[in-house]
Design goal:
The structure holds two protein chains of two kinds. By secondary structure, chain A is an all-alpha fold. Chain A has one domain. Helix content of chain A is 71%, strand content 0%. Chain A starts with 19 loop residues before the first helix and ends with a helix. In chain A, 40% of the residues are buried. Chain B has two domains: 214 residues, Rossmann fold (3-Layer(aba) Sandwich), CATH 3.40.50.300; 76 residues, Alpha-Beta Plaits (2-Layer Sandwich). Chain B contains ten helices and 14 strands. In chain B, strand 7, helix 6 and strand 8 form a beta-alpha-beta unit. In chain B, helix 3 packs across helix 4, helix 3 runs parallel beside helix 5 and helix 4 crosses helix 5. Classes of the chains: A mainly alpha, B alpha/beta. Chains A and B meet through helix 1 and helix 4 of A and helix 2, strand 6, helix 3, helix 4 and helix 6 of B.
């Protein structure tokens, strides 16, 4: 009978490659994706992202299925065109960004995990960009995938034939992707700013949704003749830019009523993102 | 480990606004286990943060593992681990997941990171707990997980900030055993603590800070003074002291304990003869051992 042997493997130094800063950045984005989607977290963390994702894609799937069964998919007869779909999904994205931003930023600061990042080959801008990058991937996919379903669904039942339809409407691919990114930037900059100064995730999500929703109150000031308050209509800026890019004019956005050009709304979104990035960066540098 | 100093600091200054935290610190420390001692507020954690590049010095020069800081911060961070004094563990992640992530953040490829996470959790005694969420860990388990995250990417140097904080005596002993084993792993360590006995039992070199200044930076072996005999006797201490003085020794008496020094002579022979002459007996005889606490209370100036 063979005797049992205990192998003391002792400490084994790592003698393989070291990926340095690029490896650390990749790890940061991967961890961000897991946090946003609740992967490798407790089951309750997975529920909300799954529900919101499902709700986002459901109408597109429904209309596509309906059109396949009915054999027709006339854009003019469907309720949801691409512009309308953004109006629906924009609200969904707002809730998703509220929850995901606070989940991405607050626990690292509150639980002291920033000190782990401070001892790795990463800078604070790497951290902020990594967190934003992870959220961008999910939010842009969240907003964009239903448009792909709509586009390819229409192509499927089109009299033109699938390839011909997609080729004729190819500009929708980049337009909807760009708009998805603009929605992400417009909302995430404010959500990150709120999360950077909050200690509780639920409070941060609530405050962010409150700020964005209450920005609709600027309408009253604009109507009273104070057009400059149109700049504060953060809820409406991405929608206004969206209609500009898609060439639609479905809604009367507050910035439009304030006499602003869509490019001004785009500028507001960019300036807000830069300012928020700088403030969040400063806040997290001190948190390490 | 090499003979090159792991840390070289000259005239380092740092202040939080008007409060000077590091005031002209200069020292050079060799490879091994280095104790960084001082009272609360002495500047220990600030110094560790300066070594990591988390804080930027107002003045002075820092070299960590041969790299100038803060110019080569990211190079240094690739080779250094940090166990902070406060919490750093996300409660909703398992130890295995977090350590794998911490290793990847240190630059290790995914597969190597997972393997290292498993190995290091075994080394710190958390292998059985690796799939538990860290929010449910005891204080001792958290301290071990914090040490594990600091060494999981196989650094050359690890900075441990109060590694025994909050631990019960058993946990403290286990943690100090782990810290001593870092030598065996080939990892240099700078251990910050205000518990002087912890430093005495784990380190080969000590840097003593007080009010942002270095009181002392020396090997711990220099604390023992072999030219002074410390004698505890059974009998009349004054009679023994008189006999020793007659033999040319200098004697300090404290109850039944005598410190006998003999410039140019052997204090141990003099102690033996004095005890015989006085008709007393030895309870204990040895070289005088100065504790870190003695040095600290005397303001670090004991090298003599």
């Amino acid at each position: 009978m063979a005797e049992g042997v205990v192998f003391d493997l002792r400490y084994k130094p790592h003698d393989g490659p070291r990926l340095g800063r690029s490896g650390a950045r990749r790890a940061l984005i991967k961890d961000g994706l897991r946090k946003v989607l609740g992967l490798r977290r407790r089951a309750r963390r997975k529920v909300l992202p799954a529900i919101l994702m499902s709700i986002a894609v459901m109408p597109a799937l429904f209309f596509t299925a309906f059109a396949v069964v009915a054999g027709d998919f006339d854009v003019s007869e469907t309720i949801f065109g691409h512009a309308d779909y953004f109006d629906l999904n924009g609200s969904m994205a707002l809730i998703f960004i509220a929850l995901a931003s606070s989940e991405l930023l607050i626990p690292d600061r509150v639980h002291g995990t920033m000190s782990v990042y401070a001892s790795r080959p990463l800078t604070t801008p790497d951290y902020v960009a990594g967190r934003a990058g992870a959220l961008a991937i999910v939010v842009v996919a969240f907003l964009w995938i239903p448009h792909l379903v709509l586009l390819f669904g229409r192509a499927w039942v089109s009299d033109q034939g699938f390839g011909s339809y997609v080729f004729d409407h190819a500009e929708l691919l980049w337009q909807t992707m760009l708009i998805s990114f603009i929605y992400f930037v417009a909302y995430t900059s404010i959500a990150f700013l709120v999360a950077a100064f909050s200690k509780r995730t639920a409070v941060a999500a609530g405050v962010f949704i409150g700020i964005v929703t209450l920005s609709g109150a600027t309408d009253a000031l604009v109507q009273a003749g104070y057009d400059v308050f149109g700049l504060g209509a953060v809820l409406d800026h991405p929608g206004y830019v969206k209609d500009w890019i898609l060439g639609s004019n479905g809604q009367n956005w507050i910035p439009a009523r304030a006499g602003m050009e869509p490019v001004m709304s785009l500028a507001v979104i960019i300036v807000l993102a830069v300012v928020a990035g700088l403030i969040v960066n400063g806040r997290y540098r001190r948190a390490a | 480990m090499t003979d090159a100093p792991i840390l070289s600091i000259s005239d380092l200054r740092f202040a939080y606004g008007d409060i000077v935290a590091i005031d002209g610190v200069s020292c050079e420390v060799p490879a091994g286990r280095i104790g960084l001692v001082g009272a609360n507020g002495a500047g220990k954690t600030t110094l560790l943060k300066l070594l990591l590049g988390v804080l930027l010095p107002a003045d002075g020069r820092i070299q960590v593992l041969g790299h100038d800081m803060p110019r080569h911060t990211l190079d240094v961070r690739s080779r250094v681990g940090w166990m902070p004094e406060g919490d750093c563990l996300p409660p909703d992640q398992t130890a295995a997941d977090f350590l794998g992530y911490a290793a990847e953040l240190g630059g290790l490829p995914v597969r190597a990171a997972r393997q290292r996470a498993s190995d290091v959790l075994g080394l710190v005694g958390l292998h059985e707990e690796r799939f538990r969420y860290m929010g449910g860990f005891s204080t001792g388990m958290k301290q071990r997980a914090k040490l594990a995250q600091a060494i999981v990417h196989d650094p050359e140097l690890v900075l441990l900030d109060e590694p025994t904080a909050g631990l019960d005596p058993e946990g403290r002993t286990e943690m100090l055993d782990l810290v001593r084993r870092l030598d065996e792993f080939g990892i240099n360590a700078i251990i910050s603590s205000h518990v002087l006995t912890d430093i005495e039992s784990t380190c080969d070199w000590v840097v003593m800070l007080d009010g942002g200044k270095v009181l002392r930076s020396n090997p711990l072996t220099s604390l023992s003074t072999p030219d002074v005999a410390e004698v505890e006797i059974i009998g009349d201490p004054q009679a023994v002291a008189s006999a020793a003085r007659r033999a040319g020794a200098t004697v300090e008496v404290d109850d039944a304990t005598l410190l006998i020094s003999a410039p140019g002579g052997d204090p141990f022979s003099i102690a033996r003869d004095a005890v015989l002459d006085a008709g007393a007996a030895f309870r204990r005889l040895g070289a005088k051992r100065t504790t870190l606490e003695d040095v600290f209370m005397e303001g670090g100036d004991t090298d003599g």
